[in-house]
């Protein structure tokens, strides 16, 4: 069982009104902020990674990012709030 401190914040690619957020690759673009590229492959950080929930693109945001990179953490949350994206805890 995951500890509550291990839970990630899920930002879904769906607005509060139920519309799908565009562009469709927004989660990969956002997660690219902490990714690395080697051997012709992209590696996403466990602190910020794209995922799919209920058929919708989303990002998994580790709350620990707030301590290691507070500016990036805040800009991601601000992006989600500005675009009225659904924010919830990981199930």
Explain how this protein is built.
Helix content is 25%, strand content 33%. By secondary structure, it is of the alpha+beta class. The protein has one domain: Uncharacterised protein PF12112 family, DUF3579 (Alpha-Beta Plaits). The strands form two sheets. The chain has a four-stranded antiparallel β-sheet. A two-stranded antiparallel ribbon has the order 2-3. Strand 4 and strand 5 (56-61) form a beta hairpin. The termini are close together. The mean pLDDT is 91.
Chart the SSEs and their pairings:
Layout: E1 9-15, H1 26-31, E2 36-38, E3 41-43, E4 48-53, E5 56-61, H2 65-68, H3 70-82, E6 85-89
Antiparallel strand pairs: 1-5, 1-6, 2-3, 4-5
Largest sheet: 4 strands, antiparallel
Could you tell me the number of beta strands? 6
Envelope shape: globular
> What letter string, H or E per element, gives the SSE order?
EHEEEEHHE
What gyration radius follows from the Cα positions, in whole Å?
A: 13 Å
Write out the CATH superfamily name: Uncharacterised protein PF12112 family, DUF3579
What number of structural domains do the residues give? 1
Question: Which CATH-level-2 architecture?
Answer: 2-Layer Sandwich
- Give the CATH topology: Alpha-Beta Plaits
Strand content: 25-35%
CA distance, first residue to last residue: 11 Å
* Structural class determined from secondary elements: alpha+beta
| Count of separate DSSP helical elements | 3
- Helix share bin: 25-40%
Look at the structure and give the mean pLDDT. Answer: 91
**What is the CATH domain class?**
Alpha Beta
Low-confidence stretches: none
Strands of the widest sheet, in order across it, are: 4-5-1-6
């Amino acid at each position: 069982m995951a500890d509550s401190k291990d839970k990630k914040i899920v930002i879904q690619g769906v607005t509060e009104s139920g519309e799908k957020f565009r562009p469709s690759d927004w989660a990969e673009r956002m997660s690219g902020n902490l990714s690395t590229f080697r051997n012709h492959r992209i590696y996403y950080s466990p602190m910020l990674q794209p995922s799919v929930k209920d058929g919708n693109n989303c990002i998994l945001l580790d709350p620990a990012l707030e301590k290691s990179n507070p500016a990036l953490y805040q800009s991601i949350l601000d992006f989600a709030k500005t675009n009225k994206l659904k924010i919830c805890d990981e199930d």
